[in-house]
Amino acid sequence: MTTITRFAPSPTGHLHVGNIRTALHNWLLAKKNGGRFLLRIDDTDAARSREEYVDAIRANLAWLGLEPDAEERQSQRLEKYEAAFAALKEAGRVYPAYETAQELELKRKIQLGRGLPPIYDRGALALTDEQRKANEAAGTAPHWRFRLDHEEPIRWEDGVRGPQEFDATQLSDPVIRRADGSWLYMLPSAVDDLDMGITDVLRGEDHVSNTAVQIQMFTALIAALRPAQQIPRFAHEALLVGKEGKLSKRLGSLGCDAFRERDIEPETLIALLARLGTSQPVEPIADRERIVETFDLATFGRAPAKFDDTELDRLNAAIVHQMAFEDVADRLPAGMDEAGWHAVRPNLAHIGEAGGWWRLVTGPIAPPRLEEEDRAYLAEAAATLEWSDDPWHSLTNALKSRTGRKGKQLFMPLRQALTGLDHGPDMSELLPLIGEDEVRARLERAAA
Ligand code: GLU
């Protein structure tokens, strides 16, 4: 059976790094198995869903190179949910409830006050037909709950957490539909997962108890409507936390725009998020194929995955150092060619720094800071300079035997004179880019 995964964001805000990680892992799981990756826009909440967020989600996935094979939208599938609802009602698995939010809150408080878990008491399930009619006659529109089956424990083999077991009596019958007819996330998601042939539901561990409930929905839907189908496999990954070990507000708003502003490469984010929280080391892997090949849910740990910005920056430098000219050409300063890219690349932590280094080639450079005794040395360098395929090595070799200088004394005044700095790209790569006339001029200027 072809693996089909989905990423199902609600377009009520921008994707944050935790969502990006979930999207990535679903994409990887599909690619690893030669399967399909769907984007499902969970936009049943019409009041909070916004089209600009849908556009941003698509744009972010494109930037990350996680393009979906297909896109679905819950708002276009409402009649499917209606049909599922009718079938579940027919099967006695949904029931109307009339409590107000305040009443439910009060019940919760009383339970908690007695040291009991705040499980819905099924008050509405116990109503007689007359009582229901009285509620309707009083103008109270019902919301709807899914009736959990209390007979059997709910079990599944979780792809990350191993065997899971829930006692349904310890769960509230979930509200699946509001009094205004709108849907909560649970039922539409189960209907879609069946309709779209989702084989693997991979999401954060904050969904574990939803899974327990949804497994019963899947079972009921399959029995009522789709006898040939199967419940998907489930895997719940540990959540992403900040370095300090807590779920931080900052992480919750850290998204692709912020990474782009910090000039972080999508491949850096991918390399980090693919491995964080797994037993595999985080490595600067720029080759997406290798990320796909080595992805393995069995390596995912139960401890929260710690997101560390300094690790991201370190990784970015290592990724940039591997990037080919073709992949970065449109982001480089005008005139910078492949040789220029190769010269400055090892000095970059971010691609945006290329312009700063390129100015060493195009000039003007900062006035060098030189010792008096070095001026004569630089005058000698200007006189010695002979242009060749490798002018730096011929120059330094010649100066070495003429002056007896070596090491720092030999190289540093030259670097200062030619770039105005005491550190920077490999001089042998810079010289051909600066060109003979300008190299000579810089040496002469520094000597004067
Ligand atoms: N829209 C849901 C969410 O963002 C989807 C959860 C799921 O993957 O099923 O939490």
TrEMBL record:
InterPro entries: aa-tRNA-synth_I_cd-bd (IPR045462), aa-tRNA-synth_I_codon-bd_sub2 (IPR020751), aa-tRNA-synth_I_CS (IPR001412), aa_tRNA-synth_I_cd-bd_sf (IPR008925), Glu-tRNA-ligase_bac/mito (IPR004527), Glu/Gln-tRNA-synth (IPR000924), Glu/Gln-tRNA-synth_Ib_cat-dom (IPR020058), GluQ/Sye (IPR049940)
GO cellular component, one term: cytosol
Top EC category: ligase
EC numbers for this chain: 6.1.1.17
Motif interval(s): 'HIGH' region: 9-19
GO molecular function per UniProt: ATP binding; glutamate-tRNA ligase activity; tRNA binding
SUPFAM superfamilies for this protein: An anticodon-binding domain of class I aminoacyl-tRNA synthetases, Nucleotidylyl transferase
Domain Aminoacyl-tRNA synthetase class I anticodon-binding per the UniProt entry, residue ranges: 377-446
Highest taxon above the source species: Bacteria
Annotated positions binding ATP: K249
Main location: cytoplasm
Motif ('KMSKS' region): 246-250
GO biological process annotation, one example: glutamyl-tRNA aminoacylation
HAMAP family for the chain: Glu_tRNA_synth_type1
Protein's name in the database: Glutamate--tRNA ligase
Lineage: Bacteria, Pseudomonadati, Pseudomonadota, Alphaproteobacteria, Sphingomonadales
Underlying gene: gltX
